[in-house]
Amino acid sequence: MEPMPTIFVSHGGPNVVTDPSEARTYLEGLPERLPRPKAIVIASAHFETDGPTVVRDPKPGMIYDFGGFSRELYEIVYPAPGDPALAGRVHGLLESAGLSPAYADERGYDHGTWTVLRLAWPDADIPVVQVSIDPSRDAAYHHRLGAALAPLRAEGILMIGSGHITHNLRAVFSAMREGMPSDPEMASKVDGFVGWMADAIASGDTEALLAWRDKAPFVADNHPTDEHLMPLLFAAGAAGSNPRAEHAHASRQFGFFAWDSWIFH
């Protein structure tokens, strides 16, 4: 059996599940591009802790970690079960890697998790274990976090990093207030950053990826803070050594908010 791929997705706002878009269509089609997973381990940019935390909640609830959206989004329930046994396996692998993990006995699904999973696997019949990111730590830490879990791929377990390839919300909200105009200057900066990331990922240049803050262009314009890019490093690390990287999706909102997704085989 071939090891399960790992994936990085740009998850957007919660309205990705209700509003038509190329990104929504891509997420809905993920099951056609991947083997059916026995379980899913997901690292969302919205689950932040000091050091790694593994959720062993057998029945996670919902977290509506957003404001100002339509009422129907606050009524969505994604009832996928947790998997305490798998959580224990994840915890053990992280512990063996010297990462000193903790457990969370209760934690619901934030929108970085449930939006992606609801679109891709709407039946909610695949167990899910959540792993936190640490916004105070760097790319190398998150790559190592994923790498510690790489053995799970051989067991049919899908590792997902859910963040965003660009995440300048100030620019996004400004575009929304002004009637969604195109911003050529911002679009050019996104082109430069996303193009650099695509080259580094496709060429397997892990050294460059780990030094993205120093080497990539227009970093502050695309990621004022790091947390939404760290799931990409998690997914790349979880793919093991020398994976083949597939640029599975690329679309834009407002001409500059990028929704790139990568599958690591």
Structure description:
By secondary structure, this protein is an alpha/beta fold. The chain has one domain: Protocatechuate 4,5-dioxygenase, Chain B. The protein contains 11 helices and 10 strands. The protein has helices spanning 22-28, 30-33, 84-96, 111-120, 139-148, 169-177, 184-202, 206-210, 212-215, 219-222, 230-238, and strands at residues 6-10, 39-48, 53-55, 102-104, 128-133, 157-163, 245-249, 252-253, 257-258, 261-264. It has a 6-stranded mixed sheet with strand order 5-2-6-1-10-7, sandwiched between helices. A two-stranded parallel ribbon has the order 3-4. Strands 8-9 form a two-stranded antiparallel ribbon. Strand 3 (53-55), helix 3 (84-96) and strand 4 (102-104) form a beta-alpha-beta unit. Helix 5 runs parallel beside helix 11. The mean pLDDT is 94.
What's the number of structural domains? 1
Tell me, rounded to a whole number, the average pLDDT. Answer: 94
- The CATH superfamily label reads LigB-like
**Overall outline:** globular
Number of strands: 10
Largest sheet: 6 strands, mixed
Q: Which structural class do the helices and strands define? A: alpha/beta
Q: Note the gap between the termini.
A: 13 Å
Rg, Cα atoms, Å? 17 Å
* CATH topology title: Protocatechuate 4,5-dioxygenase, Chain B
Helix coverage percent of residues? Answer: 25-40%
Order of helices and strands, N to C? EHHEEHEHEHEHHHHHHEEEE
Which oligomerization state do the chains in this entry correspond to? single chain
Strand order of the largest sheet: 5-2-6-1-10-7
Regions with little confidence, pLDDT below 50 for 5+ residues: none
- CATH class descriptor: Alpha Beta
Could you tell me the strand content as a percent range?
15-25%
Q: Could you say what the CATH architecture is?
A: 3-Layer(aba) Sandwich
Number of helices: 11
Domain Extradiol ring-cleavage dioxygenase class III enzyme subunit B: 36-249
Pfam families: LigB (PF02900)
GO molecular function: ferrous iron binding; oxidoreductase activity, acting on single donors with incorporation of molecular oxygen, incorporation of two atoms of oxygen; zinc ion binding
Organism: Effrenium voratum
